[in-house]
Amino acid sequence: IPLFADHDVGLVYGNCWLYNKKNLLKKRKIFSKKKLSKGMITKSILNDYKVGWLTVMIRKSYLNSTKNVFDTNYDLIADFDFAVKFSLKYKFDCIQEPIAIYRRHENQLQRIYFKKQIEQFETWFLKIKSHSYLRSHDSICSIKNKIEYMKIINLIYEKKYFKSLEKIFQYPLNINKFKLILILLLPDLILRYFRDYT
């Protein structure tokens, strides 16, 4: 495979389509409108995780030499945990065009166990802060913001509007803060769209 010609490349991934047939506003959406990152991309993964796992290919020699590829303590975020750790040692390469379709539905584990996913991110964040390199990485605060973002989303889903509004005001000023305000104010039909593609 041409992209593995560089022996420093350990993983190749590509863009994909997100598809939800029940979404009335937009059934299909591109996973990443921005150009996908390649090379040593730890910073990119921490800032904006865009590795679609249905598109991933990993160098066989790594799989043959590794017993436990994924940390089973993180059943809902094992892919993210792997991508961060793998990116510290290996280059990533990518295909910018969509090469797969990811079908979203109500029975996905990340949707059913959304609160558990938040808890796993919190555990991961506390553990990773002991990592000699990652704890000093300037992008590690992005994960803290992501966790807080997910917590506010969950408060809105639970209809704890005053508490969510308080948390939104405390949230850093960036595009996600405006998204949270929209999610809080918009009706359920529009909210469902944001939930599908958050």
UniProtKB/TrEMBL annotation:
Q: What is the protein's given name?
A: Glycosyltransferase 2-like domain-containing protein
